[in-house]
Amino acid sequence: MSKQDHILTVEVVDQDGSTFTLREICERGECHAEFVIKLVDYGIIAPLEDYPEARQWEFDVAALSRLRKAQRLQRDLKVNLPGLAMSLELLDEVEEMRREVARLNNRIRQLMGE
Q1: Domain span including residue 84
Q2: Is pLDDT at 10 greater than 80 in this prediction?
Q3: Cα(41)–Cα(81) distance, integer angstroms
Q4: In this structure, is the dihedral angle defined by the CA atoms of residues 89, 92, 93 and 94, taken in order, positive or negative?
Q5: Tens digits of residue pLDDT in 70-107
Q6: Which segments within the chain are labelled E, that is strand?
Q7: pLDDT band at residue 63 under the 50/70/90 scheme
Q8: Number of C-alpha atoms within 13 angstroms, CB side, residue 100?
Q9: What are the phi and psi torsion angles at 79 (to 5°)?
Q10: How far apart are the C-alpha atoms of 15 and 60, rounded to whole Å?
Q11: CA 44 to CA 36: how far, in whole Å?
Q12: CATH no. for residue 77?
């Protein structure tokens, strides 16, 4: 990577602690409840509390963001649900590694006096 290249990392933070019902997350994600339920079944997103009935579920902003990412992968790459789960897990690992590399690079710069 050249000095001109930069990696931009965006972290979803909701300071208000907004939550969404199943209906609201479907409206915001423009999808059917069946799709959200399948994403929960595959562990792609998770409700805040583990209620037995889907109508009692509440989701946070991070779940909505992950839902949209899953939709893009499915739309753009035609990935099935098991593939979505694996792809998102790998993307999470890559993001974590990028953060760790950036942290280590910053630490090296500090130690070298830059």
Answers
A1: 17-111
A2: no
A3: 10
A4: positive
A5: 999 999 999 999 999 999 999 999 999 999 999 999 99
A6: 19-21, 58-60
A7: very high
A8: 6
A9: -85, 135
A10: 11
A11: 9
A12: 1.10.1660.10
